[in-house]
Fold:
Amino acid sequence: MARAGQDSTRRLKSNRKRKQSSTQWLERQLNDPYVKRAKADGYRSRAAYKLIELDERFDLLKRATRVVDLGIAPGGWAQVVRKLAPRAGIVGIDLLETEPLDGVTILQMDFMDDKAPGLLTAALDGPPDLVLSDMAANTVGHKQTDHLRTMALVEAGAWFAIENLAPGGAFVAKVLAGGTDTELLALLKSHFRSVKHAKPPASRKGSSEWYVVAEGFKGRSAPDDVAPVIAAQADQTKKAG
Structure:
């Protein structure tokens, strides 16, 4: 605890070998209350509270029996699912290595690999009723390109959900720039009874991330005028990347 009259914000001593951006990130981590809470509560990342807060608003985990966690590393969301829906089957995937979690099947591979969807569904004893996606593409420093690459992952996650969710299921995904692209939003609205955006308090104020929450999965047959548009946009995105 800081002494009276002193600034309680922790600051790092200057280091010529450390980049200014790295110093700012470290200071932000040291002073972030969610980082401190995560350590105290045993969560692997502050992102756990984003799902907790989304669940408090949308009641996503109450009836969850089979959950797919796209972009599982380091495992914070899966930990929340295990705590709030202890009987649910959980399978996660990430290109990064993720430390094992009790009761969670983890696949270390690229979600964009053609084999990934089949392996994910095979790990569950039935269709998932909740697909979570906290995926984001590695940034290259070009804002438009970074946005397109991340939204391509969101679209892939949406199609996975549409092709595999049980009726009534839900899809939750991180999106950028305050919302979901028009074509993707049309796709979700054609397959889900409710599609909303939310920015949980745990998301940093300066961050461009929001979450799209699609609930009440209606079925797998996409309208003929929607699917080609999404496919065309996905093709353009791949070329841009």
